[in-house]
Amino acid sequence: MAGRRTHGDPRIAAEAGAAAEGAISGAAWHPSLATPGNAAFVAGYAAANGRAPDQFAAQAYVGVRRLAQAMQAADDPYDRAAVRAALAAIRGASTILGTFQFNEARNPAHPPVVQVVQDGAFELF
């Protein structure tokens, strides 16, 4: 929905104003991370969408790239079991989220981010 905000949306801190100042929260990603390709992702997303990306855009970007990696590595990129096995085999991938892999429960595992609202914007804590 247009105008709807989600957790981690960079507009939330600015819109909340002084009430948000000093608030600390966890996140999956931050636009200022010094991870490989992050600055290019942020610039490309902003150019294409007219606004900064949020953590969900970053997670989707990494997810699609990992799926493409798994499909290329699978013996048959159209075989679900082969792609699933290739996804499970991803270890230590360098992504904009940091080092990425799937854990034993098939959940994404990468370094978490802690951020704080300073001057109306999320900053790394």
Mean pLDDT: 91
Number of helices: 4
Radius of gyration computed on alpha carbons: 17 Å
- Report, as a whole number of angstroms, the end-to-end distance: 30 Å
Assembly type of the chains comes to single chain
The main sheet orders its strands as 1-5-6
- Beta content comes to 15-25%
Spans of at least 5 consecutive residues with low confidence? none
DSSP summary, beta strand count: 6
Helix and strand content put the structural class at: alpha+beta
Overall geometry: elongated
The helicity comes to: 25-40%
| Main sheet properties | 3 strands, antiparallel
Order of helices and strands: HEHHHEEEEE
Polypeptide structure, described:
The protein is an alpha+beta fold and 125 residues long. It has a domain of 85 residues. The protein is built from 4 helices and 6 strands; from the N terminus they run H-E-H-H-H-E-E-E-E-E. The strands form 2 sheets. The chain has a 3-stranded antiparallel β-sheet. Helix 3 crosses helix 4. The longest helix has 19 residues. The radius of gyration is 17 Å and the shape is elongated. The chain starts with 9 loop residues before the first helix and ends with a strand. The mean pLDDT is 91.
Task: Describe the structure concisely.
The protein has helices spanning 10-16, 38-49, 55-73, 80-88, and strands at residues 24-27, 93-95, 98-102, 108-109, 113-118, 121-124. Helix 3 (55-73) packs across helix 4 (80-88). The chain is an alpha+beta fold.
